[in-house]
Structure formats: structure tokens, C-alpha cells
Amino acid sequence: MKTILLIEDSDIIRENTAEILELAGYTVLTAENGKVGVAKALETRPDLVVCDIMMPVLDGYGVLHIFGQNPRLASVPFIFLTAKTERADQRKGMELGADDYITKPFEETELLNAIASRLNRLRKLQPAYDLQQPEGLNEFLRDASAVGHLEGLTTNRKPHQLRKKQEVYTEGEEPTRLYFVQAGRVKTVRRTSGGKELITGVYGPGEFFGYLPLLQQLPYADSAVVLEEAALIYIPKEEFTQLLHRHPTVGQQFIRLLAGRVDEREQQLLGMAYNSLRRRVADTLLRLHEQATGTAEASIMLLRDDLAAVIGTAPESLIRTLTEFKQAGLIEQTATGIRVLQPDKLRRAHW
């Protein structure tokens, strides 16, 4: 939540304006004169300042001058909100470095639009986004929308609740959206002509799936089924295309978010081709353990057949390996799933 410092000597205007800003979702700090306002700015560094000009102790011009001289405050957006309506006053304020100049009386929407505009101009894409955090995806979408001017991009999406074993899409369908797992787990499967099921991926919180058919503009080559009751966020194909192609910086960041998963899949395929069975089982357990929040209490709740399909082995071979791991104290098998007890030891083991 952005913080706005409101410097205004009129009690009525200060209280009313602060209430409007708080209703708009901002955190508001207030000051009754310029000196108090500068002290609060030095203490908290607000995201934006709304400041009157004519005030006791220190006027708005003085406040803006101090901001300009202080490296920590110089880049904070600054909006004058004043009864001084002469053109010369406005010119002076802008020449001193104000970002906007609004005269009293003012419309609420005029002030809110000016604030939103200044804050959006400052918004930049972050070097990385933690998509496993509840607001991680929405945070990226809001930044992408502001930086890339992606009009129509929904930046605050509601998850869709799906029950266990529900199909998300089926092989041969035309892709219409990108999927993001907010909670739960989804598997993608491909069935052989003999009816055997091969799991091609397991996706947990913070991961996208269904993007390759969108990129290739081809029907789905596999099906997606909910493994554990899941909350999925949908990004329609049109918005997926906007994110990739409308703005170079946004597109590069979006690809990086997807590429982490692509790189992981490449490593999995290499592992399936060249690693021993114990190593493959260990790597798969570690990956699923991390998806299940990475705590010792987290359980991997996959059927043995599903887990064997993910690893690319027969269920009997998987069961023998799990028994070895259990006897070595690396894992615990319970009625509800598998718990990884010693992830570091499991990771360092050489088989």
C-alpha cells in the first residue's frame, strides 16, 4: 500500500482530504505545516507528497526546496494543492520541480487521478517476483500493466476453485488461456495408444502451465487434471499475447517467469535419461517436497502409480526404492502421503 504525506494547515481540508485518500486505499500521513511535514518525510520517506503552499512556519515552496536538496527525498513525487490560482504562482511551483499543481476548490477525482498518474509513472518491473506469495502474480500484473500501458489487462484476478480429479483441459483441445496454480496441485498427462498414462508434469503453487500450446499455437498435446483440490487463476490467450508482445521489458520479464519452469523441465528430462533410479526418485521427492511448502510437516500426497509415472518407472520399482529411503531415515511414509525428513541428506547422496 502506497504512503502519501499530506501537508495542509487547514484542519478541515486536511481531515477531509486524508479521508478521501484513505478511502482510495492509500496510507496517509498528515502534517499541519511545512516543518512538521519535512520531519515526517525524513522519518518515513513517503511514496508521494500533497502539499499546500501558504502555511505557517514553513510554506510549500520551502518544503519543495528542502526535498530538492535531499538525495533521499528528491525523487519523491510532489503535488501542490493550493488556493493560489494565479498563473505566475503555478509557473513558480512547476519551475521549482513540482510534478503537478491543483487549485482549490478541487474535484476528488482530479486529485486521485493526479496521484495515480504520478505513482504509475514511477512503477517499474522488479528484478524478480515471488509467485509463491499470495499477491505475487497480481503484483507482477499491476506493474506490467503500468509499465507496458497494457489497457484492458486484468490486474487483480479471482481464483477458480477446482475439485480433485477435475479435468482442466483435454488432449486435442485448442488452448484458450494460460493457467496459474495459486493453491493445490495439477498434473499433466499423456496417454499412450495402449491406454497407459504418462505424467508429463506436476504443477504446484506459484507455477504456470498450459503455455507451450499457446506459444506454439497448437492444440494441447496432453491433458491437465487436478491432483489436489486447487485454486487456479486464468489468463486469457489475448492477455497472454499482450504480456509477451506489447512491451519488450514486460515480455522479457514474463518469459523469465515462465522460463524457470521450462529450465526445470529440461533438467527433469535429462535426469530421466541419465540418472539412476534412486537419484530420480530423490530429485522428484525433493521437488514435490518444496512445492508442498518445504517444511518437514508437508506431505506429498500422490498415489504410488502417479508418482511412478512422474519418475518414469514401474510402481514396484518405486516402492522398493521408497522402502530403502524409509529404512535409511530419509523419508516417512504415512497413510496420507510421504514426508521428506532429511532433504539435505537426500540431496547430497551419490547413487
UniProtKB/TrEMBL annotation:
Q: Where is the Cyclic nucleotide-binding domain?
A: 168-261
Response regulatory domain location is: 3-119
Q: Which Pfam families match?
A: cNMP_binding, HTH_Crp_2, Response_reg
Question: Which Gene Ontology MF annotations are present?
Answer: phosphorelay response regulator activity; transcription cis-regulatory region binding
Residues recorded with modification 4-aspartylphosphate: D52
Kindly state a single biological-process term from the GO annotations of this entry. Answer: regulation of DNA-templated transcription
- Family annotation (InterPro entries): CheY-like_superfamily, cNMP-bd_dom, cNMP-bd_dom_sf, HTH_CRP, RmlC-like_jellyroll, Sig_transdc_resp-reg_receiver, WalR-like, WH-like_DNA-bd_sf
Q: Does the keyword DNA-binding apply?
A: yes
Is Repressor set as a keyword in this record?
A: no
Provide the HTH crp-type domain boundaries: 275-344
Kindly list the GO CC terms recorded for this protein: cytosol; protein-DNA complex
UniProt KW keywords: DNA-binding, Phosphoprotein, Plasmid, Transcription, Transcription regulation, Two-component regulatory system
Q: What is this protein called?
A: Transcriptional regulator, Crp/Fnr family
Q: What is the species listed in this Swiss-Prot or TrEMBL entry? A: Hymenobacter swuensis DY53
